[in-house]
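Listing S7. Sequence submitted for prediction.
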Amino acid sequence: MLALMTARQQPPAFARMAADPLRWQLLTELGRTDRRVRELVALAAQPQSLVSYHLHQLRRSGLVTARRSSLDGRDVYYHLDLAACAGSLAEAGTALHPGLAPAAPAGVRPAGPGPRGRPALLFLCTGNSARSQIAEALARKRSRGRVRAWSAGSNPKPVHPNTARAMARYGIDAAGWQSKHFAEFTTRRFDAVITLCDKVREVCPLFPGNPRYIHWSIPDPAAAGSSDDATLPAFHATAADISTRIGYLLAAISTPPGQTAETDSLPTPT
């Protein structure tokens, strides 16, 4: 009787969500990049009503979040909450057998191959004043030199003072940082190009070498208030969000065999 009762227990949330083929397809695509509904509809080749229904289920489960686009407020970007997924996977494994409990937190594995084949990453936002600068710095610090990272913008402006204040929490000195235009990098090869704002995604140029294009829909922290002190909490929250995403990105990226990004002639990241 005890064995029968155990077998009839409700499966963990992740198992229930991932068991549906369409939801699994949505999860895996959102694990690669943030997407709008119409993009997911096109990729899944399913009616919008069906895709929206499953996205609603994924949001209710806490595995997926959504936010309005900063480019067009009528659009909504969906994002896979990787930390929530890691927790749900750990819960599912432990429910199946205690020996399947994770031995270490997700997202802390070293990134990619050794120094000779270090992946090259380019982070883009509009002003290159906050989000992409933060991502560049955190990628370099968290990878401990196992990736090379740069950042740029479509309309560069001076680095925001709160960027330095947010980076100080991570032991990163932002003194001397300068913004750059992405035109400086359009002839260079990267393993991944990551856009961090909805506006720059629409004007992101094509780069040689067929890099991965990844989008992170992250609001501009400078727009969260009318003064530096008012926006500082948003800068800290943005840095925390980017740090989490960077951790999972570093765990996932690698240079394809026999293909090394041609970045030796790039300037030293600033």
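Caption to Listing S7: primary sequence and predicted structure tokens for the chain studied. The chain has ten helices and seven strands. Confidence is low (pLDDT under 50) at residues 104-116, 255-270.
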